[in-house]
């Protein structure tokens, strides 16, 4: 799907995955919004959402937040296919984090990026208890 306002550069899955990771690593809303503005100039549509909680009981809430924020920010349309692409990429990213996170608390940010038919979801989480955190990044990609 071609969207109006896209730059003349043709981005692939690597560049879109990189955009999602960069967005997931932003430290505050100000940096997040600045980065989203820069990506928008290149025709890359993005969304981000913070999350924290116990990993096992939170998986579906994390997927829901990724889908809802993607729709709210105009990254995807309100269609079964596009919602499924974001949900699938989010589940893939979560599966990469799961071995470290089972039974522990997680907190961090989900970054979503899209350019034409490429959708990537990156999840950056601190995992653990108190100040004894491990960090992990998971990434998923789907074509829409």
Break the fold down into its secondary structure elements and pairings.
Elements: H1 13-24, H2 29-41, E1 45-54, H3 55-72, H4 80-101, E2 105-115, E3 118-129, E4 132-143
Antiparallel strand pairs: 1-2, 2-3, 3-4
Helix pairs in contact: 1-2, 3-4
CATH topology: Hut operon positive regulatory protein HutP
**CATH level 1 class label:** Alpha Beta
| Helical content (DSSP H or I, runs of 4+) | 40-55%
CATH superfamily: Hut operon regulatory protein HutP
Query: How many distinct helices?
Result: 4
Shape: globular
Q: How does this model look, in words?
A:
The structure is a single chain. Helix content is 45%, strand content 31%. α1 runs antiparallel to α2 (29-41) and α3 (55-72) runs antiparallel to α4. Mean pLDDT is 92; it is low at 1-6. The chain is globular, with a radius of gyration of 14 Å. A hairpin with a 2-residue loop joins β3 and β4 (132-143). The protein has helices at 13-24, 29-41, 55-72, 80-101, and strands spanning 45-54, 105-115, 118-129, 132-143. With 144 residues, it is of the alpha+beta class. It has a single domain, classed as Hut operon positive regulatory protein HutP, CATH 3.40.1510.10. It has a 4-stranded antiparallel beta sheet, with helices on both faces. It has 4 helices and 4 strands, in the order ααβααβββ.
Keywords:
alpha+beta; Hut operon positive regulatory protein HutP; 4-stranded antiparallel beta sheet; 4 helices; 31% strand
What is the compact description of this entry?
By secondary structure, the protein is of the alpha+beta class.
């Amino acid at each position: 799907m071609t969207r109006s306002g896209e730059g003349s550069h043709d981005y692939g899955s690597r560049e879109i995955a990189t955009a999602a990771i960069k967005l997931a690593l932003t430290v505050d809303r100000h940096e997040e919004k600045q980065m989203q503005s820069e990506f928008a100039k290149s025709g890359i549509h993005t969304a981000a959402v913070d999350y924290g909680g116990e990993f096992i009981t939170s998986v579906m809430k994390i997927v829901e937040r990724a889908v809802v924020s993607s729709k709210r920010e105009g990254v995807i349309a309100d269609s079964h296919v596009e919602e499924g692409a974001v949900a699938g990429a989010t589940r893939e990213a979560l599966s990469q984090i799961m071995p470290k996170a089972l039974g522990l608390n997680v907190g961090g940010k989900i970054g979503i990026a899209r350019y034409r038919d490429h959708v990537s979801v990156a999840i950056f989480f601190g995992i653990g208890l108190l100040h004894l955190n491990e960090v992990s990044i998971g990434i998923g990609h789907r074509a829409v």
